[in-house]
Amino acid sequence: MTRVKFLGTAGARYVMATQLRSSAGAYIEIKGKKIILDPGPGTLVRMAKSRPRINPSSVDAIILSHIHLDHTGDANAVLDAMTEGAKKRRGFLFAPSQCVKGRDKVVLDYLLSSVNTLILEPESSYSIGGVELETSLAHDHGVETYGIKFSLENGKLCFMVDTKFSPQVLSSYKDCRYIVMNVVLKECRDYVKHLCLEDVKTTAEKIKPERIIITHFGMGMLRAKPWELAEKLSRETEVNIRAASDGMQLNLD
Prior knowledge:
Metallo-beta-lactamase, Chain A; globular; seven-stranded mixed beta sheet; eight-stranded mixed beta sheet
């Protein structure tokens, strides 16, 4: 069974701070392996309230795409629960070097010693007990950032996380069957290193994936009703485009 559960769909700091949408991360289950991607603030609570409940001590891996708070705010809490208070060495942490080293690191030392840590690098391959994944090229987001691509039996499930859009970024996702896109902005802004709605349209037209899920919404997207915007883009591009909502589950079998 392959499934993605969107524990939260908040993007940008105002939506995170007000919790108009939850800022929890995404829960991904592939070949029985349980993975949390970008556990922002509230992830542990959303896992507990999920139906069925997601037990953090059963999680096999945590992936951080970059250091920003809305992607890492609950990383230590989930890691602590996953390792039973660092008493049991288990599981994996995948993260850019910036997340675990230097003055801006976001993971506490006592937790790093209780988990198997793998440093993410651009366009590199990794494995979690038979689940294969790879990183995109480095995103243009102001800090070290990578998208994540999972290999499934029927194609690739890809997470195009925060970035300024470019032909180079797009080319890194040309082999994806399913793409989850972090669309903070309705209108593009050259000075903001986030995806906008027009980037979704370009991705749909250039790559023609089977499905695109948009998430990680800022206020402009929320005011514009992302579910209606997604439906309109689906008609224009003839690609299945859907807006995620908090708690939405995507089954890919």
